[in-house]
Amino acid sequence: MTGSSGYRNLAPKTKNLIVAGGLTAFVFGVYFYTMRAVGGTDELQVAIDKYEGQKSKQEA
């Protein structure tokens, strides 16, 4: 099978680097998209602070 399928002619280590780079780019893309979509509101942090405040009142 000869032709323009250049990917098959690469060394296995090069293929692994291409796959690893693609997966890394995908993971970071999903991470940054999620962070942007969740965005500026730190609802979880506010809830944690409120819980910590209630817990310290109960202990006092």
From TrEMBL:
<dbReference type="InterPro" id="IPR018628">
    <property type="entry name" value="Coa3_CC"/>
</dbReference>
<keyword id="KW-1133">Transmembrane helix</keyword>
<feature type="domain" description="Cytochrome c oxidase assembly factor 3 mitochondrial coiled-coil">
    <location>
        <begin position="13"/>
        <end position="38"/>
    </location>
</feature>
<keyword id="KW-0812">Transmembrane</keyword>
<keyword id="KW-0472">Membrane</keyword>
<feature type="transmembrane region" description="Helical">
    <location>
        <begin position="17"/>
        <end position="34"/>
    </location>
</feature>
<dbReference type="Pfam" id="PF09813">
    <property type="entry name" value="Coa3_cc"/>
</dbReference>
<protein>
    <recommendedName>
        <fullName>Cytochrome c oxidase assembly factor 3 mitochondrial coiled-coil domain-containing protein</fullName>
    </recommendedName>
</protein>
